[in-house]
Amino acid sequence: MNLAYESIDECIRYERKLYNPNICNVNFHLHEEFEIYFLISGDVNYFVEKNMYPIKYGDLMITNNQEIHKPSFQNDHVYERITLQFAPHIVRTFNSPSLDLLSCFLNKPKGQQNKITLQPSQIKEILRLFNQIENLKPHAGYKILKLNYLIEVLVLINIIFKDVNRSENLSSMPELLTSLLDYIDMNLEKDLTLESLSTKFYVDRFYMGRVFKKYIGSNIHEYILFKRISKAKQILSEGYSVTDTCELCGFNDYSNFLKMFKRTVGVSPGKYKGNLELIDP
């Protein structure tokens, strides 16, 4: 087994944080790490791809590196959450014939089955493991323990995921917003300016923007950008060139595509394509 223990803190990132929605807005995320999100307090819906999940204390949200996601605040109450992000390759060595630790993240439709509602005993156990990670002190075995706690968390989540009710409990959205999200998702290579979308749906672009902002918590332009970057990652993984990927994802300006991809993903499209053997599809 050849694990780069010196990079454990880069591969496993734990954070417990308070937010004041009046001061801080959380935009869309699309990162290379897989993420486990645990709500402690607050009135929040959680948006993944085209679905909006109502969540409460004890709910887990799990997302992989192809799913755009964000919390959507329902009021100005302060909220608190825990996130545990990890590079998928760091745990593959520990898979067994009976359990793939990434199964709950990958063996489901994109943007679906992201919410896991925990029972009281499961909440207690997951918080125990989170607290173990949070309270780790630097010492000789620190990095081994951090990896071990992550694996324990993943074993627990996968066991729960297999038994969870598959019926989705989603927040309702206006028909305009549902249709808009579906159209964007299916037409990322086309003109998706506010003017073109306004014409397509026969609705004032300012009204359309307000509806999007009210329910999603961000603007349409940012959503389209993240969806295009997500599609670019997928296309690059299929072997397409960076130039072809730019065109297929609807970026009209090549230099802008390079800039936006690096800003969002952290590396250039060329480097991402070259490093795909280290990244789960």
From TrEMBL:
This is YesN/AraC family two-component response regulator. InterPro entries: Homeodomain-like_sf, HTH-like, HTH_AraC, HTH_AraC-typ_CS. Residues 178-275 form the HTH araC/xylS-type domain. Keywords: DNA-binding, Transcription, Transcription regulation. It comes from Paenibacillus aceris.
